[in-house]
Design a protein that fits this description.
single chain, 307 residues, Tetracycline Repressor, domain 2, 13 helices, disordered N terminus
Length: 307
């Protein structure tokens, strides 16, 4: 009798833990990346237009859901490789705590939900959401194993987030310079993530991710130099050439915050050994958080008070 009771309690405990394990696999800590969806409503001056803001927030939530489905798919594809990683081996799927079948069903349900809401928000937004999903699945099952293409795929996903925001609020004056800035910024983050993986995994790097065998620290540092320079140049050009900015070029006042943010991130990666999880770099560093807040305030002031 006692054995039956213990078994029943264990089964209840496993049942209760499944939602928690699924939530971990969905990676809610990664959701802040989807803030790029809101770029259109902010930089097009529609932040105070409540219908546009509501649609943008809905689009942000859609991307949170679809990106969570992508993380589940990625973990399903990488179960064996993650088991060889010093930290990823603790993930629910890699550790065996979560059933692959349950994870696959959850991923399918999340995709169906996100596409249904995306369709309600408009055909253009649905098309971008589908493109984002396809690129991510292609990344999980092939592109991440191709040198340099893996970095470009990550950048493409960030650009698609911005494009989704443009579609959902029907932006007419969104500057193409912001697409370029997004591309370079995403490359900057992806390159430094690869750099940290090289440092963390050392000689075992190629066993975890095939492309890491082709990268070296000097090469990645050269990539970083090129991309950080291009980012600063592209953003500077945006501040005085975009058609919807104040004629007095006040947006140039935000450039120092961009410079500090990039330099601070680089310092955290190369000196403090961070960068493996970009969201942790941002959320755990008060100076970088303060810089992002000041940048956001400067942009809002310029776009909504000076215009």
């Amino acid at each position: 009798m006692l054995g039956v009771m213990v078994q029943a309690l264990q089964e209840r405990s496993v049942t209760r833990s499944v939602p928690r394990l699924l939530l971990r696999t969905m990676r809610p800590r990664q959701w802040p990346k989807n803030v790029f969806v809101l770029a259109a409503v902010v930089f097009d001056g529609k932040l105070l237009h409540w219908p546009s803001l509501a649609r943008s927030v809905a689009a942000f939530l859609v991307f949170c859901v679809v990106s969570s489905a992508v993380y589940i798919i990625n973990d399903l594809a990488d179960i064996e490789k993650d088991r060889a990683h010093p930290s990823k081996r603790l993930r629910p799927l890699a550790s065996g705590q979560l059933s692959p079948a349950v994870a696959a069903v959850a991923a399918a349900a999340l995709i169906a939900l996100s596409l249904a809401v995306a369709w309600a928000l408009g055909v253009g937004f649905l098309a971008v959401t589908l493109a984002y999903l396809v690129v991510n699945i292609a990344y999980s099952f092939g592109m991440k194993s191709v040198l340099i293409v893996d970095l470009l795929a990550i950048a493409a996903c960030f650009v698609l987030r911005v494009a989704a925001g443009v579609e959902v609020v029907h932006v007419a004056r969104f500057s193409p310079w912001l697409y370029i800035c997004t591309t370079f910024l995403a490359l900057f983050i992806a390159i430094n993530k690869r750099r940290q993986e090289q440092v963390l995994l050392a000689g075992e790097a190629s066993n975890h991710r095939a492309t890491l065998a082709g990268y070296s620290l000097p090469l990645l540092d050269q990539f970083t130099t090129i991309v950080i320079s291009a980012t600063l140049m592209a953003y500077s050009l945006y501040t005085f050439s975009a058609p919807n900015l104040p004629a007095n070029h006040a947006m140039m006042l935000s450039i120092p915050f961009v410079i500090y943010g990039l330099f601070r991130y680089l310092y955290l990666v190369q000196v403090k050994g961070m960068g493996g999880a970009p969201e942790d770099v941002v959320l755990r560093d008060p100076p970088l958080l303060a810089d992002l807040a000041l940048y956001a305030v400067s942009v809002v002031i310029v776009l909504y008070l000076f215009s």
